[in-house]
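The instructor's notes for this session suggest beginning with a concrete chain rather than abstract definitions. Hand out the sequence below and ask the class to guess, before any prediction is shown, which regions might be ordered.
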Amino acid sequence: MKLGLVGEKLGHSYSAVIHTQFNLLTGLEGSYDLLEIPLEADFRGEILKLADKGFDGVNVTIPYKIKALEISDTCSMEARNIGAANTLLFNKGKIHAANTDYFGFRASLEAGGIEVTGHSFVVLGSGGSSRSVTAVLEDCGASGIQIASRKKRGGRFISYEDIQEGFGLVNTTPVGMYPDLNGCPVNDGIVEKFNAAVDLIYNPAYTKFLKKADSLGLKTANGLFMLVAQAVKAQEIWRKRSYENDLIISIYNILKTRNTRFILTGMSGCGKTTLGMKAASETGLEFIDIDDEIERKYGRISEIFREHGEQVFREYETRELEKACSRNNVVISTGGGILGIKRNQDIITNSIVIYISRPLSEIKKTMDDSNRPMIRNKPGMIERLYNSRKCDYERTMNHKLLNIGSVDQAVGELVKIIQGEISR
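After discussion, reveal the predicted structure:
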């Protein structure tokens, strides 16, 4: 079966991975391609071309879900009621549209233990995904639903400035999706007015929006379970058969392990290697030190700097980070300056990033700068690096661990963070 995903920009997508896992677990054959369609293109014409090329069907994502319904010849009840479609089936020159986002979102709420009945919700965004979310909330008995939109007003549509308190806050916008890692659809003052937060984004697994909600003690859920559930539902439509819920859970658990990479960041001398090695041992995870990998393959770091310069060292560093991040169930200790390269920030997007923070005064007490070419014989450099790098550490972190007590105490805190993420 020849399938795919159509959208404007698909570099962030996990869909191909999900459908590959579906084929592996079911023993079925099929391909799944990522098919970008530019905004200026004739959408219906491009879809018909895919049918002519032998595609059996496609999923549809941002920003074409409403158009997908408009170009269809027939549609499911859910797609008609919602006014948007994310799944197309090609059959004898006709296009059938369905909406599996409805099923996926409902399944994700149940999996996340987020109660809807009798509770009020605010949905952020008014696009195709918002319509699916709203339909689920209505059918599950939400006591009130408002939709925050930058364009629409009247009825249940409100401006972002008019958001009041409620039980659940659901983000259906792409704000915060890779590569916009610093984006957040609302400010912190709004998030703290709610008890639960759901983000349909799945890359990164924990957006800035969910990080804030987590820090405030809200119940949270990201878009990964929804993505898997809607994908299996789409396969049911294409293959005209049903699958057990256990298949959804199995695929979800496989993808979830992609997020069992723990990246330790922070200044040289903050304790990343010591804490990481001990915490990895206690949690049964592999431990990788990026600097050690560089020295094992390319020679001493001080010699790399002296003979080839910092640029070559950074290239080696990125290369080893990419290799390390291809593994799961691992704790990775990074160099102090690794986040100064944008590519490295992108590489760690789907990992759990833990910033090991230590006061500069404590770092200076124990640091031997003889093997640290960035600061050796450079008065004041460590202070400048500490201040300039702090922003990157905090901006990319999922957790912050303040290392000011004993080693055992800090290791205990790190183990607690790791075990908490694994048990999510």
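Then share the key points. The longest strand covers residues 2-7. The mean pLDDT is 90.
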